[in-house]
Amino acid sequence: MQKVKNTMESKKYKKRFVLVHGLCHGAWTWYKLKTQLEAAGHYVTVVDLATSGINMTSLEEIETLKDYCKPLLEFLNSLCSDDEKVIVIAHSMGGICAALAADIFPCKIAVIVFMTAFMPDTRNPPAYVYQKKKESQFRSRQIQQRLITSFAQEDWLDTVFGTYGKPDHPLEFALFGPNFMATNLYQLSPPEDLELAKMLVRVNPIVTDNLAGTRNFSEDGYGSVTRIYIVCGEDLAIPEDYQRWMISNFPVKEVMEIKDADHMAMFSKPQELCALLLVVADKYA
Amino acid sequence: MSEHHFVFVHGAGHGGWCWYKIANSLRENGHKATCIDLKGAGINLTDPNTVSSLDDYNQPLNDFLSQLPLDQKVILVSHSVRGGSMTAAMCQYPSKVSMAVYVAAAMVKPGTIIPPILKEVLKICSGMIETEAEKIWDFTFGNGPCNLPTTMMMKPEYVRDKYYNESPMEDYTLATTLLRPAPIMAFAGIVDIPAAPEADKIPRVYVKTGKDNMFQSSRQDLMVTLWPPAQYFLLEESDHSAFFSQPEALYKILLEAASSISP
């Protein structure tokens, strides 16, 4: 009896994490976190979204947000109703992909963790939080008096932007430049991880209204899934103020924080990130 | 310290990414490092099933070398069976290469008889896939089932033991997200590289890997005997992927080897 009970308990303990990368990145982004979560006894699935990592879909084939998220959606679709619900961890623009996945498969997801990620609401179009970041201007009135502005084109440094698709329905793409990555994404991460990233970032579609459509995510779908936010305190790409604005715009179950993390917390603070995710797994899955 | 320019050629299934630690160390210390993705590897978008020959596969490396300014030379560093790609490039662009480093790599003198170590690869190229090979490798038949296979990829359950037995788990995990099928047509060409006297003059370095489960010790020794290099180093604790299992030691070897030539 004891043996059966132990097996059942360990089966219940082992969770499945699904890690969703951000713009221009890929499944490779998660190599440290995946290793740590697996060492802690969990299952981890990492996906390359379309035209990311070693996924060979071409940019031109991506006409909708669903096209971009296809590998993630296909994975979730493959899960049976017997399978336990998964814990989705989303980074940066991957947050919008996680929201789409939750809108389609709310019953397969126990919780979404937005790690310095764009977190849509259920009132506005999917691209709203990303587009608002581009257009808005924030002032920080805290002691450091750091002026947080929108990223005007020059602030993106050597990042390349462009359009593709049909003239009457233009879509946008971006490719992070090495200087931008060093200054605004990886400034607190190990230099070797920046070197790795420089070799692997690829042109990716940006989430716009044209890509994602203007129909908001639903209350019954995405709106019904538990959400956690992990704030990364030293993120220069999505500043803390903006992360907290998104939280106030669409409140979450719990806010966690990694104070000294840059945008790429999976590189700059992998152990702290893993520790928080193990707490999430315990509490919410 | 004088600045050298190292150009890295990855092994089958891998990409420029595998050299990231070495590249970082070199750049932090004032050297240049270029990590090429050969065709169908890393984030090169070519379908590996369509790579038709060694030359086709090598195109990114050849393009890079052909575009180097006249007064510049590089140190080539290769891994595993793609030592053959490096040898071919040396023969085509001897004036651009100041040194060639073979890290657990196929080092065969152009125009000579192929040693037994490459026999398995040759058999696969001629369509004779033995049971042993089928056990370890997955093949795709991009030209139809009646033609030669077009790619081969190691089955996941063998990857850690064959490639990364002494490497950190993190690097093994990284590799599992990035390994791609290797184009078989790219292997065929390495046995046909014609003799090249100019390439013979390029100083070669061999780095042997002591705990290599992919490329056995005796086979590495045989290659060194058949085409003795100018310098030889042994990484006793290294598995097949020295860039992961012994990055600091490999980095130091590269610097030591390079110190014998001017940048």
Task: Give the helices and strands, then pairings.
The complex is a heterodimer of chains A (285) and B (263).
Chain A: H1 2-13, E1 16-20, H2 31-39, E2 43-47, H3 65-78, E3 86-92, H4 94-104, E4 109-117, H5 128-135, E5 138-139, E6 147-148, E7 160-166, E8 169-175, H6 178-185, H7 191-200, E9 204-205, H8 209-212, E10 226-232, H9 240-249, E11 254-258, H10 265-268, H11 270-284
Parallel strand pairs in A: 1-2, 1-3, 3-4, 4-10, 10-11
Antiparallel strand pairs in A: 5-6, 7-8, 8-9
Helix pairs in contact in A: 2-11, 3-4
Chain B: E1 5-9, H1 20-28, E2 32-36, H2 54-66, E3 74-79, H3 83-92, E4 97-103, H4 119-125, H5 131-136, E5 137-140, E6 151-154, H6 156-163, H7 169-176, E7 182-183, H8 185-188, H9 197-200, E8 204-209, H10 217-226, E9 231-235, H11 242-245, H12 247-258
Helix pairs in contact in B: 1-12, 2-3
How much of the sequence of chain A is in beta strands?
Answer: 15-25%
Helical content of chain A (DSSP H or I, runs of 4+)? 25-40%
Question: Sheet bearing the most strands of chain A, described?
Answer: 6 strands, parallel
Distance linking N and C termini of chain A: 26 Å
By DSSP, the count of extended strands of chain A is 11
Number of strand elements of chain B: 9
Give the helix/strand class of chain B: alpha/beta
Secondary-structure element order of chain A, N to C = HEHEHEHEHEEEEHHEHEHEHH
Query: Which structural class do the helices and strands of chain A define?
Result: alpha/beta
Task: Strand order, main sheet of chain B: write it out.
Answer: 2-1-3-4-8-9
Shape of chain A: globular
Gross geometry of chain B: globular
Task: Describe it.
The complex is a heterodimer of chains A (285) and B (263). By secondary structure, chain A is an alpha/beta fold. In chain A, 37% of the residues lie in helices and 20% in strands. Chain A contains eleven helices and eleven strands. Chain B has twelve helices and nine strands. Chain B is globular. The termini of chain B are close together. Chain A binds chain B through residues 26-28, 30-32, 34-35, 38-39, 46, 48, 53-54, 56, 58, 191-192, 195-196, 199-200, 202, and chain B through 15-17, 20-21, 23-25, 27-28, 35, 42-43, 45, 47, 169-171, 173-174, 177-178, 180.
